[in-house]
Amino acid sequence: TQIFVEGGGGYTWEEQGNETDSFFNAYIGERINHWITDYTRVYQSFAGFVPVDDVDDFRLIGELGLETYLSQNLSFKVFLQDQFENSPAEGREENDFKVISGISYKF
Hints:
It contains no helices and six strands. The protein has strands spanning 2-16, 19-35, 40-51, 59-69, 74-85, 95-105.
């Protein structure tokens, strides 16, 4: 089992229709990997992005997934992702839930 915690700063630039916005944000995240076998892991991650000038405009992203390596560079991944945007764009919902699967190749 591996546990990672990270944090830092960033800069965001957004364009929605004719409006643009840019701001500095704080980032905090964590990730947990648990290897079921030598080739298969389950993982969970959580990340938060908070603009430093408007803490009410935050974004949270959580994932829960399963990845299995098919070879040294190739893996199959399926995961659930939930993204919460506290101040979404007009006409958008706050919460976006996805089920994603795919093949990954590492160079």
